[in-house]
């Protein structure tokens, strides 16, 4: 018998609540909600560039460099915002990871258990169908469902029909 899954411990719950509290207090003057396309188009910054940015800002100011539409003050403000938000994000991830793992594990275990039970009943009904035409007629759609492989989502908007599996389950007529 499989070991019982543990519920979220009090310290984990406490950490979760702390992260939610922190997240609620962070200043979010502008929250970005990007589409998949916008997310893909975003430049991928080096995660450590913020440590070099003050040197760049000082040098640009020293030589009097100003780029149109690109403010050094906005850069400094963005870096301050990132420095403030990064630890909050990390705390939220740390807090929610155990919860998400517990939810995923619970769903995986229950789906597996349900799938095993489902298959046991299909196998038994299929065996009974060999001697009972009424059962054979009623179990046929279930067996046909199982004999069709579910396709992975196509890259395009191709709504083609699922293809039969190489070895369909046989149901007596």
Task: Please explain how this structure is put together.
By secondary structure, the chain is mostly helical. It has a domain at 10-27 and 48-147. The protein has helices spanning 10-25, 36-41, 53-63, 72-129, 133-147. Helix 3 (53-63) packs antiparallel against helix 4 (72-129) and helix 4 runs antiparallel to helix 5. The longest helix is centred in the middle third of the chain and has 58 residues, at 72-129. The protein is elongated and about 90 Å long.
Short description:
The chain has a domain at 10-27 and 48-147. It is 61% helix and 0% strand. The protein has five helices and no strands.
Task: Summarize the topology.
Layout: H1 10-25, H2 36-41, H3 53-63, H4 72-129, H5 133-147
Key features of this structure:
mainly alpha, 173 residues, elongated, 5 helices
Counting DSSP H or I runs of 4 or more residues, the number of helices is 5
How many strand elements? 0
Order of helical and strand elements:
HHHHH
What radius of gyration results from the CA coordinates?
28 Å
């Amino acid at each position: 018998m499989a070991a019982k899954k543990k519920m979220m411990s009090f310290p984990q719950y406490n950490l979760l609540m702390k992260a939610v509290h922190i997240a609620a207090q962070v200043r979010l003057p502008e929250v970005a909600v990007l589409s998949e396309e916008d997310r893909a188009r975003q430049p991928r910054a080096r995660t450590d560039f913020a440590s070099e940015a003050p040197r760049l800002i000082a040098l640009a100011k020293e030589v009097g460099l100003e780029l149109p539409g690109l403010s050094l003050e906005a850069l400094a403000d963005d870096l301050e915002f990132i420095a403030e938000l990064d630890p909050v994000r990390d705390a939220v991830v740390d807090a929610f990871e155990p919860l998400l793992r517990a939810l995923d594990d619970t769903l995986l275990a229950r789906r597996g258990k349900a799938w095993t039970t489902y298959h046991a009943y299909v196998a038994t009904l299929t065996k009974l169908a060999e001697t009972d035409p009424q059962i054979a007629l009623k179990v046929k759609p279930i067996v046909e469902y199982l004999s069709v492989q579910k396709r992975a989502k196509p890259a395009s908007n191709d709504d083609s029909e699922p293809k039969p599996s190489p070895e369909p389950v046989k149901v007596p007529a």
